[in-house]
């Protein structure tokens, strides 16, 4: 299984904070997962195609595509605004 | 002696005097600290009355620790301490505290500012503002990215 987490505005737009998904062709890479989630509806498509969306795998921000493995935790979130 | 690095993410308030005391070492001649507060907002716009801070548990602590250890290496700091609050915070509340101790003040100033600049652009926290306007997510500011980028240019 993969755990997929959403934070802040992205969490509100898609209406989910966390999903558990089985590994499959649709979740084999970060780009594939993102594209697959984007087909869940208009809100999902909008949130997951935002230009400044940040993607993290296992608590590390990822630039570019990467393969996903059993037990990985993926997160999608907007630019951070702490401090 | 190995440098002390402490990272705390918590809902409760913090005591800056106690945090600063924990950064005093016999070989550290300088401690520089920064405290961030919830502010009312921009003059002429509807006032902010409170904020809500969301974070990514686990990743938050880890990312701050990476930043703090980088500062320790780069400026030979004796200690770095970071406290960041989460949850609902009214105007005037303390949000964040960063302290850096070093042999001399130049390294302590630089280390403290570096940690703060990177925390603002890398650590997974998100602010939502509340006020007469209702509620709204705070947008990331290009000026914060520019501040963090300076540290690469100066490397």
TrEMBL record, chain A:
GO biological process: Mo-molybdopterin cofactor biosynthetic process
InterPro entries recorded: Beta-grasp_dom_sf, MOCS2A, Mopterin_synth/thiamin_S_b, ThiS/MoaD-like
High-level lineage: Bacteria, Pseudomonadati, Pseudomonadota, Gammaproteobacteria, Cellvibrionales
A family per Pfam: ThiS
Domain of life: Bacteria
Keywords: Nucleotide-binding
Identification of the protein by name: Molybdopterin synthase sulfur carrier subunit
Key word Repressor present: no
GO MF annotation terms: nucleotide binding
PANTHER family cross-referenced by the UniProt entry: MOLYBDOPTERIN SYNTHASE SULFUR CARRIER SUBUNIT (PTHR33359:SF1)
A GO CC term assigned to this protein in UniProt: molybdopterin adenylyltransferase complex
Annotated source species: Parahaliea mediterranea
Family: Belongs to the MoaD family.
